[in-house]
Records
---
Amino acid sequence: MTTCSIREHLLPEAAIGTARRLLSVHFGPPDAARKVYIQAGLHADEAPGYLVAARLLELLGRADAAGEIRERIVVVPVANPIGLGQWTTDSVQGRFDNSDHINFNRRYYDMLEELTERLQDRLGQDAGENVALIRKCAGEILVAKEPTTEAETLKHTLLTLSHDADVVLDLHCDHQALLHVYMGTALWPAGADLSVQMGAGATLLANDSGDMPFDEANSKLWWDLAKNFPEAAIPSACLAATVELRGVADTGLEYTEQDAGNLYFFLQRRGFIAGEAPPLPNLTAEATPLEGVDYITATCAGILTYLKQPGDLVQKGEAVALVTQPMNNPGKGEKQPIISRTSGVFFARSADRFARPGKIIGKVAGVEPLEGKGPYLLTF
Ligand SMILES: [Zn+2]
């Protein structure tokens, strides 16, 4: 007997006649102890994740038919139908909600304060019991919330589906990039098998990226609670990670097959699915702090010529791109270099070739934290 079931989650009608819905696909014995949650398309304009989630669902369906799903697996193959509806001049603009301009992957509800209140004098030395109690309380807090807007309801629904999972994977992509991963500092190296299996060219670690992205809404509360209750045994019980599946146009069959296959092997190795995953490859890229990422920024308007490809190693002070300013001394051929402030792997760059002051045109994963980063470590 198969275990797969599909649930529908309706979002409130934001404009007359536009009610949208989410689907969550559930596998595994409902009473299984552990749970993994995977979603794609939270930034709705990032295509590769949809393909990888769709292929993974095929693989899971096959495993389910063979009775091989051991734990609970939940997949939301399209996490943001609001963003998908935001077409502007022939392209989807799915990163920010058009109604309030808030990034769909920011400002998830931070349950820390409410949890801390509810958990007073209730936690002990048994980590398993503590995890179960914390998840129960988190579930109660979420049930009591009454989101109003369409986007708030979307975020609340996604967090409700994910908050009690042991593993949460949020599938995104960058503009042009290596496959890379974001996760909590406390989750490394325990979560290194994810980065290694996915073949990540960089893994960026932070305990608090700022502005509460989806992955941290699931993971950060564990180390925050451990800080608030130092006497209690509170593990980092949720391996939540944002997996950036290269660039927006990296939708080839080979990538889809490779990434879905690697997610499957990761789940197999972690015991969510029966069968033996192949030996874990060697770690090729040590994790680095998110605070060490140089968001290389243009300082003038012009046209970009990249000197570096994603995957190139760059040195501090080295130029990664040139900016041509066609109206500045025409005929002189002057170009402005854009310089990296750190040494490391150049793991992402812009997909278009236009620069303006303040625009991030590339990202370098440096080993040392950079000065003056402030509390917001992610891009807009
Ligand atoms: Zn994204």
---
Amino acid sequence: MIRVLAPVLLLLALFLPHAQAQVLSGDLVQGGMVIGRTLPGTKVFLGDRAVSVAASGVFVLGFGRDHPPTAKLRLLGEDGTASESVLDIRQRTYRTQRIDGLPPKMVTPPAEVLQRIRRENGEIARIRAVDTPVTYFEDKWIWPTIGPVTGVFGSQRILNGKPRRPHFGIDIAAPRGTAVVAPRDGIVRLAEEDLYYTGGTIMLDHGHGIVSVYSHLSRIDVAVGDKVAVASIIGAVGSTGRSTGAHLDWRINWFDQRLDPALLLTGMPAAGG
Ligand SMILES: [Zn+2]
């Protein structure tokens, strides 16, 4: 069940005349993406991390699956003024998902592929670290494909009785060949037919560390460097890589922080029609 959350608008420190002025919109919750607006030229820090601010004054923050209950936001104005606020990050409980009877090689990769996995993960991490000065993340997101949500963000997976990494995406079941569209404008940073875990995989860069990933694709219609517009087709649903059936696995990061795509959207529209 996706939790549908109306965007919360927070007005913080707006009464201050100078660079402290900021507006945050989005969910201050584990897995949440929050868009901020401040005066151009202001420097923004979340904890120790310097956050890029666009010429328009827009910035974005993300709070990962296990983010602690508070975060410190600091703004330094061009005029030398400074402000600091403590954000309360709502804590979530995640469900446990047990999957038994998987072939052992789907649970523990064979030794001969470990180097390949390390190389592929290194490339994915490199792309997630990129801080591109575009703000495509700002506008409304749409579903990349339509179908039943069969896996949710954050669930703890126990595969054949062994606890594994949590599930960081959402899974949308759809027949092989169903179109996958860009849920927002983006720049294609990765377009690979056959990664070990995720098979046919696309990564889109939406700017300022917001990167989304589409996995298990049966077809890829874009190339690295392409600029894709929201709602344009980028590939098709499949079951490539370590997958047990046709579905789209959709993930979003803010740098190394894992975000919940479901928080960006309202409920899934009815399939078909
Ligand atoms: Zn998945």
---
Amino acid sequence: MVERLAQGGIENPALDARLLLCAALGVEDIALISAPEEKLSAEERETVEAYLQRRLTGEPVSRILGRREFWGLSFGLNEATLDPRPDSETLVETALRHFNLPQNESPRVLDLGTGSGCLLLALLYELESAWGLGTDRSENALGMARQNAAALGIGSRAAFACADWGAALRGGFHLVVSNPPYIPGADIEGLQREVRAHDPRAALDGGLDGLDPYRILFAQFDGLASDGGIGVFEFGAGQEDALFALAREAGLRVIETACDLGGKPRILAVCKV
Ligand SMILES: C[S@@+](CC[C@H](N)C(=O)[O-])C[C@H]1O[C@@H](n2cnc3c(N)ncnc32)[C@H](O)[C@@H]1O
């Protein structure tokens, strides 16, 4: 299996083979190690082969398994949700670092473009007294986010609504986060096949220069955030300067630009002036 994946140009063949084999057999890693010689049944062999073929056509392991770990939590995925990226954990870290617990009221968190719900649910997992709302334009994605909230035991503190960003909402959120689509439309064809063919276009396409969603989100921030509330936004490579300018034009104060795991500027934290 490892050899076939390697020959097919898959980057981490040993890791992928292990993950796919475990999923196909319904076992933990340890079971494979303790009984490597165990024979596969015809049905198991068929499942392994099907997974292998899917991986060889460029489908990410997380898509094949329908699941991705984010912030140490397990999130179900479907065709309408972005596959959460490890770099987005920097957004959660940054938000928690700047978040000021409000006095005399329970914290309210808003996640615009929630997808699988990974950002909102990771934040609610950490902020035990908080309540949160995730919006998305995709009902299908919201269905997955609701399932994830329930599976993580956070369903009673998380609500999800189909909305165009925060247009239908009023203020009072102590923390507003978003990882909007930020790839310039014309660049999407040039992305890795894992991304281009398997992440939904609605989660990638940020318009002509990739910044369309921020123009809306920054304009809405003042009306959505409480006084003293903060906004934390993820952005793409090379967008830092343009984003700074957009934030300033929208009358926001930049608190910090945080770097991702690769040391690249990735997260912008803002507040009202
Ligand atoms: C890059 S994905 C981020 C998903 C998730 N927050 C994450 O970090 O994995 C952007 C999300 O924004 C949603 N979206 C795109 N346009 C939107 C709009 N106008 N209003 C609300 N959500 C939108 C997409 O459906 C997608 O789920």
